[in-house]
Amino acid sequence: MENIKEQKERQERIRELTQVLIDFLSESIVDEELPVVDAIFVFGHYDSRPAIQAAKLWKMGKAPKVIISGKGRDKIPSGFETEADFYASLIQKEGVPMSALILEKQSTNTLENVRFGVSEASDLHPTSFILCALPPLLRRSIATFKKQFPHVSVCGSAFEMSTDEFLAPVRLQRIISEFERLHDYAQKGDIVSVEITDSVQNALEELKKLLS
User: Fold this and answer.
1) Mind listing the pLDDT tens digit for each residue in 109-154?
2) Which residues contact 8 (CB under 8 A, 6 or more apart)?
3) For this UniProt entry, which segments traverse the membrane (predicted)?
């Protein structure tokens, strides 16, 4: 059985490895360096922070339109029919007018978010997007766009999250499963192949061992 010191050292190592994985998954550019694009594309969720980030970027003048994509499947906040409706409410409260919003309310996964969201905004003929999502989902979101719409330029925008948010066992497994999704979805043809560096792969394997 581990003593208290060993437990603390193990937890600290888990935190360090988790940070390496999150840094890799959160493919993004700092707000001030983001280009001006045709639209900000936000992936629906019950976590309010991607919506707040999208509103922040709109107010910075990074794009004239915000596309909100997502029907959702569960955990949609009470009083809203879809994730898109929930996010639209949040974004408007941040000072973005409804006239700047485009809502897509049918998608239930990332691939549909991308396909249906771009279709909903087809009148704009967009060629560039800034993507807003939970930070650890940004690399897969970008990879999906690159596969489905290779002619469109995309970059990610991440809000600040603490690594401590991911240290619960279920959250750690979610981070590990994101790497499995990168592999599986590339095999299916949903996303472009994502190269995982040796240092990140080593961190992933070490984390798995520590959690087993």
Assistant:
1) 999 999 999 999 999 999 999 999 999 999 999 999 999 999 999 9
2) none
3) none
41 vs 38: CA distance, rounded Å:
10
Would you give the DSSP letter of residue 150? Answer: T
Rg (CA), the chain: 18
Question: Phi, psi at residue 40, to the nearest 5°?
Answer: -90, 130
> Of 129, 149, 160, 155, whose CA–CA distance to 190 is shortest?
149
pTM over 0.90: yes
Is the pLDDT confidence value at 1 over 90? no
By the 10 Å C-beta count (0-12 exposed, 13-18 middle, 19+ buried), 199 is classed as exposed
Whole-number Å distance between alpha carbons of 42 and 152: 16
Give CA–CA dist 88/3, Å, rounded: 50
Q: Alpha carbon of 143 to those of 25, 113, 149, 203: distances in Å?
A: 11, 13, 10, 21
Beta strands in 70-180 (DSSP E): 101-104, 128-132, 153-157
| Run of H or E residues at 39 | strand 39-43
Q: Which residue matches tokens 């279920």?
A: 170
Q: How far apart are CA 59 and CA 135, in angstroms?
A: 20
- Location of structure tokens 């983001």: 34
Contact 159, 137 (CB under 8 A): no
